[in-house]
Amino acid sequence: MRAFLSVLIFCLALPIQVSSGFAQTRVSKSTASNQDINKRVADWLKTCLSAWDKETHMSKGEWRTTCQRVSAERRKFLIEEAEKGVSFDPMDRTPRKGTRVY
Predict the structure, then answer these.
(1) How many structural domains compose the chain?
(2) Structure confidence by residue, pLDDT tens digits, 6-18
(3) How far is CA 49 from CA 4, 13, 18, 32, 73, in A?
(4) Which residues constitute the domain of residue 56?
């Protein structure tokens, strides 16, 4: 159960991390390549799969299926945003004093 909550919090916190740690700027559609998107999705999938715990209410197979579905949804989102011209490249500025980085 604890691992399930951790993954749920991770999924819910992602938009907060994206909005606080990355700049959303308009760029040409060619800057966000499919290779970059696929690498990011593969990293997310790997992280999700490694978060499985025996104490969860899901079997490892069910967990894998859920992780694959969430990763596919994230990939679709990144592709749609890239088509709109939005970039999620890291910003070149330091975080404000007193902010927390998770």
Answers:
(1) 1
(2) 555 555 555 444 4
(3) 11, 18, 21, 25, 16
(4) 2-6+23-87
